[in-house]
Every structure is written in C-alpha cells, then in structure tokens.
Amino acid sequence: MEHQQPHVVVHPLPVQGHIKPLLCLAQLLSEAGLYVSFVITHHTHKRLENLSALTAQFPNLHFEPFSDGLPDDHPRCLNFDFFIDIKTKTKPFFKDLLLSLDTKSEKGLSPPVTCVINDGYLSYPLEVAEELRIPLFTFIAHSACFLLTYYSIPKLIEEGHVPFSDNNMNLEINGIAGLEGILRRKNLPPACMMKEVTSPLFKQCLDESLAMNRASGLIINTFDDLEVQCLPHVANKFCKVYSIGPLHAFLNSKIGNQSQLIASHASLWKAEQSCIAWLDSQTLKSVVYVSFGTLAKRSVSQLLEFSHGLVNSGHPFLWVIHPDVVLDEERENAMPEELQKGVKENGCIVDWAPQEEVLAHKAVGGFVTHCGWNSTLESIMARIPLICWPYTSDQNINADLVSKVLRIGVELEGCDRQTIESTIRALMDGRKEEFQNSIDKIAKCGLDGIGHGGSSNQNLEFLVEDIKKIKSLE
C-alpha cells in the first residue's frame, strides 16, 4: 500500500440529511485518489443498504462503524438531550476509533490518518482531533445563510433582538450584513427561542456552534452564485472556506449512469420504485411532488387539509407520507380513510420515494417541500420550482432564500385547503413561466460551478491539494 496516500476520516451527524451530502463528498474525495474512512455509528450502519456495492465502485472508500455509547432502545431524537448524550458518551468511542486506525496504519493495513472532516453539528470530534493533534475541517450540510445566523447571535443579543420581547416570529430583523431582507425571528437557530440567554444551556449551544471556526477550514454544500450575498461574510469567520456544492450533482457528473444507484446507498429509508412507473403514465410537467423530508412532523388535520388542497388543485400528485411524518401523539391515526379519498384518481401515495429520480422525471412540474437544504438543492438542479412549507431549523431561512431572493418558488402562507389549492395553481399554472425562467438560470450557474474551471470544481481541487499538503508536512 502507498503510505503517502492521504487518509481522510469523514464523520456525519447520524441523520439522513447530513449523511447523504457527506457521503457524496467522501465519494468525490475517493475519486480524487484519497483514502477515505467514512465513520458512522453501528445504529446508522445497519440501516444503510448495499454498502459493498458502493465500496466496489469506490475502492478508496471504507466504512468504519463504531459504538455511539447509547443503549439500543435510545430514541436518538435530535433534541438538546441527544447532543448532550453524544458529547459525553460517544466522544470516547470516537477517540478509540481514531487510535485504532493508527494501529491499522502501523500494521500496514491503511495509511495513517491525515485529517478529519467533521459534521459541524458535532463538537466532540473537534475536541478529540485537537487532543490528538489531527487537523480537522468542518462540514456544513445546511445553507451558508443559516450558518451566518449563528455567528450573528452575539450581535443580536447586544442589540436586544434576542431573547425575543414578544411572540411575533415573523418580525424582520435588520442590520445583519449578508442577511438583508431574509432574516426574521423564526429564521434564527432554535436556541434563540430560549427565554434566558444567560442560561448554561444557551451558552453551551452557542459556544459549541461557534467553536467550528477553530477548524482548518469550512466545507459547505453550496455554490457561489446561489448564496452570493452571505458567503463573503461567512468567509470572514473562517481561515478557509470551500463551497463545493451541489454535492449530489457534482457526484452525478463524475459517475454518470451510476448516479441513481449510488444515491440509494445514502438513504436510511427504502424507496418505493413503483412510483416511477406511475410517473411514466403522467403528462409532461403535470405532477406535483410532495415530500416533507425525514424529520418534519405534521398533524393529521394538516395532512387532511393537504389532501383536499392537492385534489382540488386538479393536478396529479405524488405524495410521500412515511409513518414518522405524523406527530408522535397522533401516530395511531396516521392514515385515516379520508386521506385516501381522491388519491386513486388524482395521485399516488408512497412511504418513501427515490427523490433525485422523481425530480428528474419529465412528468414532475413542482415540488411541495419542507425546504431542507438537500431537497432545495436537488430541486434547483432538477429545475423544478418549489412551494416551501418549512418546519424548523434552517428550513425557514431557506424558504425566504427561495421565495424572496432567488424567486424560484413561493412560501405556503397557510395550511388550509383553499390556500394549498391556490398556491399549487399559482406555481403550476399562473406563475409557471416566471419561476421556470428563474430556476433555469440558477441551475445553469450550479452546473457551471461543478464543471471544469467552475468555482465548486476549483474549490474541491483546492481542498484536495490542501489535504495533500498536510500529508507532505508530516
């Protein structure tokens, strides 16, 4: 084995929306000739399918499962308690794994670890890397705009915007460079909803978020033309910033016909391919695709209103309703009979869909989405205008970016059947040409960015070279 080959350890937050982009990055780094260890918890590893086929496609990519230190019956919900648990309980196991990789290198089984690429939502890998004196790059799976909101919190506290003085979550906040026109209270990180900004919990959340600028650089799944107003301000917070998105499209451009196969390997949910056959039977650009991601929760009454709004719009629809989309306390009533009315003639409901393949289908003309960053990027690159119904976290500011800055879609202003129907009609009929022209332009910028000489392509090359320089200095 060539021991001068750089060895990169990639470690995602164990949720769908973070695993997929980091796995795309891992494959790109592997394709560039680096040895990559994709480090995931046992709990996550057993849910990913066909990883052997993925390593066959990318022989430099290796999966290293390890314990997260939590019991099997732990819910692993993304709340404050979960992040406190993994900080204390997962950290020693992650350290042991890094040390075991060094042991493997001493035996000639792999190159020594060069650096770690860590999900920015996890703080313990940064602490372990600093302790072991291993360079670390931080990866952000959400938008640059949302990242900038974190770094704006100290100023917002100083100016009295946080904590909030009332419950008007739509109140616009001005004076934050890079976020002009798109910063509302509800667009801030969840920690800002706390009433006491002097509490230890708030301080811990803020300190751990801002600690990521101690990394050797920031890798972000975006492209320069998409977030031109905020990326320069993000760059001021880090020694280096590598904007190398959209990662899914970048990877697809490298592996061609294998793209749909590889995309399925990043999914914690098994997609129902029958929906593709249903799409084949629909006319060009007629179908509304509806999916609220893996984490968003909706009430049964909201789903019923959506059902009526979709049917009344007159457009056929493909709707993803997996069991976890329903509020926990209403789970037993997840699929009432009324929800099925109208679907047999107008639409198709599945537990999960192969989203990239769906968005690329010629029958799809619009996407109703929670506006997670992966879904937003996938919709842009497929040139499908969006209806945004954000749920939490970065989704709110993504919706404002889509509707107010890029003008490639609209935000749903209410969850009643009349509003849903009229919003779908506006996207699919009334303002169709307007949105299509806008999204075609930004999609072309994305393609240019991942093409030869493009900004994302160059930034990936810079990242690879900077990792190789670390190796040469050892």
Automatic annotation (TrEMBL):
Family listed: Belongs to the UDP-glycosyltransferase family.
Protein's UniProt keywords contain Ligase: no
GO molecular function: quercetin 3-O-glucosyltransferase activity; quercetin 7-O-glucosyltransferase activity
Keywords, sorted A to Z: Glycosyltransferase, Transferase
Gene behind this protein: LOC107430694
Membrane-spanning residues: none
PANTHER family: GLUCOSYL/GLUCURONOSYL TRANSFERASES, GLYCOSYLTRANSFERASE
Protein name: Glycosyltransferase
Lineage: Eukaryota, Viridiplantae, Streptophyta, Embryophyta, Tracheophyta
Domain of life: Eukaryota
Coiled-coil zones: none
Matches recorded under CDD domains: GT1_Gtf-like
The protein's Enzyme Commission number: 2.4.1.-
InterPro entries reported for this sequence: UDP_glucos_trans, UDP_glycos_trans_CS
Organism from which the protein derives: Ziziphus jujuba
Enzyme class: transferase
